[in-house]
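Hey L., structure's done. Input below.
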Amino acid sequence: PTITAGNAQINQIGNQFTFSKQNLSPNEPLVFDMRFRPGTLITVAPQWQTRQAQQTALVPAWVGLSIAILLFGAWMIMRYWQQHRPNMPSTKAVAYELPGKLPPAFAGALLTTGSEPGWAHALGTLFDLADRGILQIDELPDKKWYRSQDFVIRLLKRPSDLQIHEQALL
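Output:
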């Protein structure tokens, strides 16, 4: 044994140690350290150590089971999504025909609720003017960090037979 705090006399007789200190004042420390070889005091590990070792041995099994449950859940979600997704036509054809003789802005106004035109009506008119050769829409090659695409719209000609909403857009 060793004394780590305070002063005392250590006497050893066989396996017995005696610590002697005289005139021990209040709050004066006396701390000693005694080391024992494993198995000399008790022959069986304490129950808490045994339980801790058993729980530590089960950690790989619990981690494996957790990963298996996670993968099974992901597989079930993917399977459900594949079976219940809406049927989309596999064709990539786009209809470019106007609905009758109406301009796109009028057709859009008839199909939507509300009385005010929106961006969809303006874009329909814009693309219709580009399709008729009045405007040209070009994508700029340089991209900014805050947006992926930038476009320039150029007026190619200004016909005199434009409708009022087309003139207002230009």
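Residues 5 and 31 are 5 Å apart (CA to CA). The mean pLDDT is 83.

-- N.
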